[in-house]
Amino acid sequence: KLAARNKTAAEDIEKLAKKKPRSGELQSLLGYARLQQKRIEPAFNAFRRAYRADASLLAAQRRAGELALNLGRVNEAAQTMEALYRKAPGAPTVNTALAAIESHRGKVQRAEKLLTQTLTLKSGRARPQDRSQAFVLRARIALKRGDKKSAKADLNSAIRSWSGNSQALGLLSEAHIKEKRFDEAINQLRGLERAGAKSAATSIKIAQCYAAMGRMDRSLEVLLEARATYPKDAMVLIELGSAYERKKEFKQAYDTYGKA
């Protein structure tokens, strides 16, 4: 029920966790329930209680470390993940989470070493998603130092490892747009949609790519589809108005701008 984001289930977990505050498993479930509700700090507190109550709950400890970083508590994140790394050295999810923290702290060499540990594991010892995330983080590190070639290679590897990696698809599409390789950008943006990351912003980017390629009719089609899906999105309406204006359909443009 929790996986289906059932509100009643989340409330039940809150009640049970209050009754049994020393149950690591219940505290871990509470953390996931709060995470689904986007209550980051309460989720962090629940995951921290979970692994402190039961040291075998490594996933809860990893979540606590990741959320500590998300909350800007870099030192606490580092301490949490270092302790976890000592328990499970070489575990792909642990390596990548710790590498993200080390990169944030400016310890790039160690971050890259941790990522290399994951990426050199034999097939079957790391899930495709874990390998893909490691490639994305290494690409982000490369981008920070201005190495676009290495970053793009890693982003392509991330997508080959797991085609549903929305971070890799998003970063790669941005790179292609900057290089004016609009056809490739459209392929990545469509990949984002197939991965479940369909949004008004993605539709607008696709339309803009078509317009940049001179395919005005296709750009308009994409924006009309976006308006049908997101009828109240102001940015979609503004972009659609601009598309009508480019086609010199001024009345349609005026009417569309008026709805934005």
Write the layout of secondary structure elements.
Blueprint: H1 7-19, H2 24-36, H3 40-53, H4 58-70, H5 74-87, H6 92-104, H7 108-119, H8 128-144, H9 148-161, H10 166-178, H11 182-194, H12 200-212, H13 216-229, H14 234-246, H15 250-259
H/E element sequence: HHHHHHHHHHHHHHH
Global geometry: globular
Mean pLDDT: 92
Most strands sheet: none
Report the sheet-strand fraction.
under 5%
Please mark out the parts with pLDDT under 50 across 5 or more consecutive residues, or reply none: none
> Which structural class should the secondary elements be placed in?
mainly alpha
Gap between N and C termini: 39 Å
Would you mind describing this structure in some detail?
The chain is mostly helical and 260 residues long. The protein has 15 helices and no strands. The chain has helices spanning 7-19, 24-36, 40-53, 58-70, 74-87, 92-104, 108-119, 128-144, 148-161, 166-178, 182-194, 200-212, 216-229, 234-246, 250-259. Helix 5 runs antiparallel to helix 6, helix 6 (92-104) runs parallel beside helix 8 (128-144) and helix 10 (166-178) runs antiparallel to helix 11. The chain is globular, with a radius of gyration of 22 Å.
Q: What keywords describe this structure?
A:
260 residues, mainly alpha, 15 helices, 77% helix, globular
